Amino acid sequence: MENLTEVKIEDVKVGTGVEVAVGDNITVHYVGTTADGTVFDSSRQRGEPITFGLNPGQLIQGWIEGIPGMKEGGVRKLVIPGPLAYGENPPPGAGFGANATLYFEVELIAVSN
């Protein structure tokens, strides 16, 4: 049975730069997929990384739990169960349903606080 309260983390590559903490501003490349491998969002496809604050209430909870501890240059895979992703309210046109488990590969490019 799938654990719906825990983000699964796999470090593909451990970075050597600054370590991320909640509240930091980070720049990442990421690819988000559904269980069948369908890409629903990708900074790589857009050709530009994204910068944002790692702040509770502004991101899905799975990122708040799964990103801290990464270091610049690192690549991490996250498996985020539905309740820690978008829960019952996926964004319109997201390409996945309520409580969908989401899969992300995140490359941490930069950290600033």
Structure, described:
The chain is mainly beta. It has a single domain (about 10-110), classed as Chitinase A, domain 3, CATH 3.10.50. It contains 2 helices and 6 strands; from the N terminus they run βββαβαββ. Strands 1, 2, 3, 4, 5 and 6 form a 6-stranded antiparallel sheet that branches. The radius of gyration is 13 Å and the shape is globular. The model has no long low-confidence stretch (mean pLDDT about 95). This is Peptidyl-prolyl cis-trans isomerase. Keywords: Isomerase, Rotamase.
Q: Characterize the largest beta sheet: strand count, sense, and whether it forms a barrel.
A: 6 strands, antiparallel
Mean pLDDT: 95
CATH architecture: Roll
Number of domains: 1
Please report which band the strand proportion falls in: under 5%, 5-15%, 15-25%, 25-35%, 35-45% or over 45%: 35-45%
Shape: globular
Q: Helix/strand/pairing class, anyone?
A: mainly beta
CATH topology: Chitinase A, domain 3
The CATH class name reads: Alpha Beta
| Residue share in helix | under 10%
- According to DSSP, the number of beta strands is 6
